[in-house]
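Hey, resending since the last one bounced:
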Amino acid sequence: MAADISGWVVLYGETDSRLNVRFMHGCFAKNDEMTVPLMWNLADRWDLPDAIIGHAVLTEKEEGLYADCYLNEDNRAKSFREEIASNPPIAFTFFANKLQYAKRRRCKILQSGYIHIIGFEFNPKKVVLKSSKIEQINIKEMGIYGDKGTEGNVAAAAE
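The structure tokens again:
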């Protein structure tokens, strides 16, 4: 089954300018092949039953951490599908803990961590990790038909 949404959560070597943290290669290796909850907005209370709209399967690759996201078949996920038909997400956000850093002169280097929850960012001004990006939205699979009516990238989904 093809993922509903997929893309890069983080690329290694990138610096989170807001937190002044650089992501070392392999820092999320513990998340390889792990399934984590998927939320529409990380500002939601994740402990509420309807906060979760699906799950993400994380894969560590040479370049960074990649996510294949699968949406539930409930009303909240349906609302999310309707929202992204006109306003597709542009990046991932995540909640992580058990972070271990090495201090450097200019920034902290994240050596390892553990991602617990994945979410989406819709506002380009709020995207912290510039290389975190949604690469694919399966428009046909999700029943969202634009002018093209086929699978496509985020730009195609927004058309």
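Confidence is low (pLDDT under 50) at residues 140-159.

Sorry for the duplicate.
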